[in-house]
Design a protein that fits this description.
Length: 250
């Protein structure tokens, strides 16, 4: 338990799935972790504390600027600083022909998935700049940020936007010792995918058949890539979109 000893990390979307798996992995590697979600992950954080790790829970809607600002402040109040962040919070929309997509659905997906990443980076970077320290940020895009998909135009647009933000901001901060990258998960065993399997089983079955590795990803497999991107082992990786998709986009 030394890889992340004395480090502090924020993980959004930490109530379950990839966010929770990442928070758990960082904690086990020695980091102090702020678990953040729109539905406050109190029990998830308490489970880590009960296991002997350093963790707090924070309720935050990442599309709300004041809430994001407070998220970073609460993390620093609890642990004294910030080193890393995994901006994972995101939502999916039901499959819908573009002409039938309602404006409020478009706004919600873009506000959480793209604006939320921008807001999180803004206040995480402000804290790192205030500290004058190096650090790393990993944003969660998707294989949907690398390709299109019928019926999910706004989701794919939002995840393409995450990569544009990641690459551009990475270029701003690389010389300051702050590395920013993105992960592009494929079809992962998460509550969101479970819901898609239940409500869109035919479409999802066809999608899974196209995965070369022949199975869904486990949330822990994405978490391990996030940990690596934040670690000194990835010290020369900047502005990249790392696919974790079993070969789907290859």
């Amino acid at each position: 338990m030394t890889t992340m000893k004395d480090k502090v990390v924020i993980v959004t979307g930490a109530k379950g799935g990839m966010g929770l798996a990442t928070a758990q992995l960082f904690a086990k590697e020695g980091a102090s972790v702020a678990l953040v979600d729109r539905n406050e992950p109190k029990q998830e954080a308490q489970d880590l504390v009960d296991a002997g790790y350093q963790a707090i829970s924070i309720q935050c809607d990442v599309s709300d600027e004041e809430a994001v600002k407070a998220m970073v402040e609460k993390t620093v109040d609890a642990f004294g600083k910030l080193d890393y962040a995994y901006n994972n919070a995101g939502i999916q929309n039901a499959m819908t022909d573009t002409v039938d997509l309602k404006e409020e659905v478009y706004d919600e997906v873009m506000n959480v998935n793209t604006k939320g990443i921008w807001l999180c980076m803004k206040y995480e970077l402000l804290q790192l700049r205030k500290q004058g320290t190096e650090g790393a940020i990993v944003n969660c895009s998707s294989m949907g940020g690398l390709m299109g998909g019928p019926g999910r135009s706004v989701y794919h647009a939002s995840k393409h936007g995450v990569l544009g933000l990641t690459k551009s901001v990475a270029l701003e901060y690389a010389s300051k010792g702050i590395r920013i990258n993105a992960v592009c998960p494929g079809i992962v065993e998460t509550p969101m995918v479970e819901n898609m399997l239940a409500t869109e089983s035919d479409a999802m079955d066809e999608l899974i058949k196209q995965v070369p590795i022949g199975r869904l990803a486990k949330a822990e497999e994405v978490a391990s890539v996030v940990l690596w991107l934040c670690s000194p082992s990835a010290s020369y990786i900047v502005g990249q979109a790392i696919s974790v998709d079993g070969g789907f986009t290859a």
